[in-house]
Amino acid sequence: MRMSTFERVADLPVKVERYELSGLSFKANENFERLSTLVRMYGAGEEGQGEDVTYEGLDQIALQDAGPVHDLSGPGSFGELCDLFGRLDLFPVPPERDVSRLYRRWA
Length: 107
Prior knowledge:
Blueprint: H1 5-9, E1 18-29, E2 32-43, E3 46-52, H2 57-66, H3 78-87
Antiparallel strand pairs: 1-2, 2-3
């Protein structure tokens, strides 16, 4: 039986000491600017980064304005960190569209 990618990495050790959020923007044309958020996590001398691509600009602004409000220091494995993200409400205010909750998963 083949293992999924998640099963292969779930037990890898993880230590998140802090994270930062930075705003990104791309002016697609004169009528549309795409906003997103760069998420950087730091721990054990390492850095990881990814982009929150939730579509609505107001959701990105609310996330950036709230800043790093979650304690991510507890999980000791990648699987535990993913479980934590599944329990957290990563929207500081309700999203513009409820479907956005399916997109904001930093792990």
